[in-house]
Amino acid sequence: MKFTEQHEWLREEGGLITVGITAHATEQLGDIVFIELPEAGTDVSKGDEIVVIESVKAASDILAPLDGKIVEINEALAETPALVNEDAMGAAWFFRMRPSDIAPMDDYMDEDAYKKMTG
Amino acid sequence: MTALAETPLTALHAQLGARMIPFAGYSMPVQYPMGVMGEHVHTRRAAGLFDIGHMGQVRLHGNGAAAALEALIPGDIAGLPAGRQRYGFFTNDAGGLLDDLMLANRGDHILMVTNAARKDADIAHMCAHMPAGVTVDPVTDRGLIALQGPCAETVLHRLNPAAKNMAFMDVTDMELLGQACWVSRSGYTGEDGYEISVPAAAAEPLARALLQFPEVAPVGLGARDSLRLEAGLCLYGHDIDAKTTPVEAGLAWAIGKVRRTNGTREGGFPGAGAILGQLVRGTRRRRVGLLPEGRAPMRAGVALFADDGAEQVGAITSGGFGPTVGRPVAMGYVPAALSVPGSTVYGALRGKRLPLTVATLPFRPANFKR
Questions:
Q1: Which domains does chain B carry?
Q2: Which CATH number covers residue A35?
Q3: Tens digits of residue pLDDT in B42-71
Q4: How many domains does chain A have?
Q5: CB–CB contact A33 B36 (8 Å)
Q6: Which of A31, A58, A81 sits opposite B35 (nearest CB)?
Q7: Using a CB-CB distance cutoff of 8 angstroms, which residues of chain A are in contact with residue B297?
Q8: Which runs of consecutive H residues, i.e. helices, occur in A18-72?
Q9: Is residue A114 in a domain?
C-alpha cells in the first residue's frame, strides 16, 4: 500500500488502483457528512480535484493520484458518508482507477514514510 | 502574536482531551474526543456542558440604568421584572446591529451577557453613553458555564433543588457546591437548560461535579454552532452585523411594544427611524431558513440566485450539517419576494447551481421549560 501527502492510501490489485483516505485523515476531518465522487468512466489527470469531502467542520478535496480512468466508485458512500469515519482503510474506499502508467506509484510513500510524516 | 486569553476551565479542557482553537481572542475547545456530531446528539438527548466563560458578563448599577440602556437598545428593559431575563441588541444610527445579548433584571442592578468578540466594544459603547449615576462594571472574576439539554433540570436539581422551580428566562442567585452562583434558565441551543455564572476559582470544581453525572458530557464550540443553527439562532458576525437591521434579521419580536410606534416609550434608540419604518413597510431582504435539497452542506458565503441568471440575490450566512434533522441546513438572506417558505433559491457550489428550499425557523422545535 502507498500513501500520498494528501492522506490518500493507494492499493494496487491486478492493474487497478483502489483509493481511499487514511484513518489519520478522518481523525483530522471529524465526522464526515457528505462525499461527492467522480462518475465511473471519467478520465482524470494527476492533481485533478476529483472528490469532495464535507465534514461537520469544512470541505476538503481529494486529488487524482495518477493519470487514468475511474472504473468504479463506492456507491455506499453517497448514502452513508459516516462509513469513512468507521472504516477508512477498508469498506470506505472511494474509487478504483486504471492508471495509464503505473510506474509513478513508486514515487509515493510507503507506510513507514507516511507514519513518519504524520508522526 | 498576542497570547490567547484563557477561561477558568482551560486546564480542565486539556485534561478532557479537547482540541483547542483560537476564538474571539480566547483559546477555546472546539470539540472533545466524542466529536462534534456525538456532542450535538448528546446535548439533544441528555445534557451538554459548555464553557462560555469567554462571553462578556457586565453589570450596570445605578437607578437610571434601565432607562439609559433603552437609549441604546430597542427593547423593553424598564418593564423587565426583577428575576427575569430578556434577549436584546445594541443598534447603530442606521438601525444596524452592534451586538446581540441577554439582559437580566437582578433587582439592584442589570446583568448583561454579550458576545465574546464584542464585549470590549459593548463596554466602551455603554461607558460613552451612560449618564452620571450609572456605572458599567465588567465582571472579570467569574466563569460562565452552560448546562443544556433535556436532562439539565434533573442534573442541576441534584446540586440544588431550587433549579426545578425556575421557569424559562428566570434568573436567580443559587448556591451550588457552597458557591454563590447567578443562574438563568436559558441558553443558545434550542434546549432547556441553564447558564451558570460562578466565581472563577469555583468554576472547575463545579464543572467537574456536573461532568460526574452520567447524563453530562462536555461539548465544544463545534456542536454549539450546529445546535444554535438547528435552533434558528443568529451568530453575531455571521447572520447579523452592523449592516443588518433587526427587522431584516427576523428579530423584531425582541423590540418591545412600548418601544414601537405609538408605544408609551416609542423610539429613542439609535436607528429608531429606520427600524420603526421597516416594522411598518417591511424590508427588501429577510433572513430565512434554507434546506439544501441534496446532501451537500452549503456553508456561510455561498452566493444565492433566484434562477440561473447572473444576478446574485442573497447569500448564506450560516450553514452546515444538522445532526438532529439529519440533513444539511442553512440560514441566509433573500429578497422579501423569495422569503415565503417553500420558495426555491439556488446556491452556487463548486461551479454548480444547487436548489435550496426556503424553510421556517427553527429547523427543530425548541424544547424550553415555559
A1: 1-281 (3.30.1360.120), 284-370 (2.40.30.110)
A2: 2.40.50.100
A3: 999 999 999 999 999 999 999 999 999 999
A4: 1
A5: no
A6: A31
A7: 33-34, 54, 59
A8: 23-29
A9: no
List, in sequence order, every residue forming a beta bridge with B287; answer none if it has no partner: B333
Tell me the per-residue pLDDT of A39-83, one tens digit each, with 9 for 90 and over: 999 999 999 999 999 999 888 999 999 999 999 999 999 999 999
Q: How confident is the model at residue B83 (pLDDT cuts 50, 70, 90)?
A: very high
Pairing outcome for strands B344-349 and B303-305: antiparallel
Residue ranges making up the domain that contains A34: 2-102
Question: What percent of chain B stands above pLDDT 70?
Answer: 100
A118, part of any domain: no
Q: How far is A91 from chain B (nearest CA, A)?
A: 21
CB burial of residue B132 (10 Å; 0-12, 13-18, 19+) = exposed
Shortest CA distance from A30: residue in chain B? B35
Question: Which residues does chain B have within 8 Å of residue A30's beta carbon, measured at their own beta carbons?
Answer: 31, 35-37, 222
CA distance B321 to chain A (A): 6
Shortest CA distance from B32: residue in chain A: A30
Q: pLDDT at position B285, please?
A: 98
Residues of A in contact with B226 (CB under 8 A): 56
pLDDT band at B309 (very low <50, low <70, confident <90, very high): confident
- Distance of alpha carbon B364 from alpha carbon B361, whole angstroms: 8
Dist. CA B303–CA B311, nearest whole Å: 10
Arithmetic mean of pLDDT over chain A = 95
Cell 452513508 maps to which residue? A80
Q: Do A31 and B296 touch (CB under 8 A)?
A: no
Residue that is written with C-alpha cell 431584516 in the block:
B248
Query: Of A113, A101, A4, A106, which is closest to residue A62 (Cα–Cα)?
Result: A4
In a domain, A110, yes or no: no
Residue B1's pLDDT band (cuts 50, 70, 90) = low
On the question of pLDDT at B308 being above 90, the answer is: no
Q: Indicate whether this complex's ipTM tops 0.90.
A: no
